[in-house]
Amino acid sequence: MTMQDSLFSNDAPPLEPKRARGVQPAPVSDEDQALAAALSPHVHLGTSTWSYPGWQGLVWAGRHSEATLSRTGLPAYSAQPLLRAVGIDRGFYKPLAASEFQRHAEQVPRGFRFTVKAPSLVSDPLLRSEDGRGQQPNPLFLDPTAALQDFIAPAYEGLGASIGALVFQISPLPGSMLARMNEQFDRLHALLLALPKPPAGVLCVEVRDAAWLTRDLADLLRDTGATYCLGLHPKLPPLAEQLPLLRALWPGPMVARWNLNRLHGAYGYEEAEKKYGEFSEMLDPDPETRAELARVIRGTAGAGQDCFVTISNKAEGSAPLSVRALAQAVVHA
């Protein structure tokens, strides 16, 4: 037998299967497939971002660094049938270019939607130091020109039909501005009137001060075609107390961001992060909030209106598990 014959004989062991390269999605269970199929196409549930290594087995098939997931994990994330939306929060710290938005949009399937926060450049009333302390008034707070240039135009161009909700999350107001809320309502009204309608999805406003939650806000949102984003955060009243605003805007889409479990208090992000570790377990279930949210989703989607809901790991401990539990509450009520 020649050397070549011995190398290629039938006794030679077969080659191992080729390993998949890059970030791969975790296998999808039959239960999740059925749950996704039962959800209305108007329901877009997702997490507040997608770069957590601890989601191995829930979203990712293997272990990857946060940097790798941030760069290349979105296609695997969007392959999970229950994850039909995701948040882009990093633009809050620095405006994103249209090309960055486009790169994200090109990595997801048709029908997937993004919830994007406006940069603090236009949504924070104060200019802040590196440790987050307000130093002086922000001259561009709710400025229409800056909002159009640094947020709206790039998002419209880059995301297009993938837009779910573009969110002006207004940071806490200093006492001097809270004492002059009429001025703040006028400023917000002027901003929203100046912005063109999105090619898809909706413009919306999320707040961190209960002083905004009045009929004045509902009137200006209706007048401008924008909507209110339910902010599930301890700085605001519970979900049930925010719903009158949404009812005042009916019929219309629903936007919700479930940011932080109320048990941690208004300033509990660091506490929650330490407690929840790798965000792989639901450690603090909140069935009451979930049931109320599911009820609103069912009613909104049942009337043919879109729902855009993103959930943070700090809501219950693991955002993908919260999405699954919320989907179950919507379908199996």
From TrEMBL:
It holds the Pfam family DUF72. Signal peptide: none annotated. Residues 1-31 are annotated as: Disordered. InterPro entries: DUF72, UPF0759_sf. PANTHER family: DUF72 DOMAIN-CONTAINING PROTEIN, UNCHARACTERIZED PROTEIN YECE. This is Uncharacterized protein YecE (DUF72 family). It comes from Roseateles asaccharophilus.
